[in-house]
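To the structural biology subgroup,

Please find below the input and predicted structure for ABC transporter permease, which we are adding to the shared reference set this quarter. The sequence is reproduced verbatim from the submission form. If anyone notices a discrepancy with their own records, reply to this email rather than editing the shared folder directly, so we keep one authoritative version.
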Amino acid sequence: MRYSPTVRTTLGFIVLALLCLWFADLSITTVDPWRELTRLFLGLVQPDFAAVDFVGVAILRTLAFAFTGVALGAGAGLLLALAFRYRLTRTLCAFVRAIHELFWALIFLQFFGLHPLTGVLAIAIPYAGIFAKVYAEILDETDPHPARTLPHGTGWVSGLAFTRISQAWPHLVSYTSYRLECGLRSSAVLGFVGLPTLGYYLESSFAQGRYGSVGALLILFYVLIATIRLWVRPRLLPFYLIAAPFLLGSGMPIMWHNVARFFTEDIVPAPLRRGEGASGLGPWLNDLLVHQALPGIWNTLVLTQIALVLTGALAMLLFPLISRHFTGRLGGTAGHLLLVILRSTPEYLLAFILLQMWGPSMLPAVVALALHNGGIIGHLLGQRSNQITLRADAPGGLDRYTYEVVPRLYGPFLALLFYRWEIIMRETAILGILGIATLGFFVNSAIQEIRFDRAMVLILITALLNIAVDILARRLRAHLRLRHSVQVQSC
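Predicted structure (tokenized):
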């Protein structure tokens, strides 16, 4: 029996994930995980809003970091998009977006400390690379004919504004709005490295066992994300952008000599600082690769492969919850609520919660990655399925799912999954900060030991690994001829 390329690719990924299970640590090490899970559930259904009198400041700081970082990233991304045809620009953008916001934050913490600039740049820099890529794709899709009808002598800026940008404006606005939602999630997660956003207070409440406060903070965060279209209105946006920098708070004064020392001394490999030259650099790199980089790469790849396949399985199970072909109005509302919660919860936050429940292993990371990304893809597939028109005599139930809807969605499903592959890889690496032995674990350990030279090499390896996976995913999409408008799927 001959299988189609898409089926062979799917089976190959499943088999590879099953093999990875043999090497993965998926154990539960806590004494009574169900008791902790029950306490968390009770905190969600009985939130203690009175105990979170600080929440107003936390939300304002979360919004301020998100608006400022996304605005700077969007401005820089638009400028880079205009030069995206140059290989140097594309390479620069690929590199900066391959490094997770938390890695950027860890870098800036070393010389800016807990200064607002740390959080703003941690969001703005990778987002600039993402914006550049997507904005360039949007602009490339515009009709070139209007530009040819401009009067002679029209300036380049005026021509660009009245032709390509004017055509692309609705798509640019739509994507930027989506990135703001991503920015809110990134801003909240920055609290886990000490910045005063919602993540900081969530971690503190967990550490103190105050599950009522945890439940209240999570509910407020979900409401903030779910209602973003209600309070982010075009006429209010200038006010938000002007107010945001003033709501970032203040930190310790920046010691600029620390910044200079970081770039001129701290990140220089130790053998070179000691004057050993190339003879000492080889053994230093070999030790780093053998004992940290290679184990980190292996665990990152194993965890990513398992999470990717589980993400796909969950997405195929979840999309009928919001599809008009399988559910009614009441069921669809409940399904939308579930998917909003799943896709609104950052993987890092969800993995942190599950680690408290189950203990340190790959299991919390796998489940967190699959739930978040499965929720995103499931939501998009459900929307896509609502555009499908079935014939009058189409079967119902499982036959409808298997023979009518899934075959029409499978191409877009694989395209979305491959687009999320690189993002899952980025998140897998950063989850090492929580104690899982991926690349992020060794990066964080090097920073804690004040070995910034080792940390920077490991971060560089992480970026190159993400770029390699992105290239592989693009080639698979081209080989399988998978096309889907996924401009909103880079978060």
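Summary notes: The longest helix spans residues 278-318. The two ends are 39 Å apart (CA to CA).

Regards,
Lab coordination
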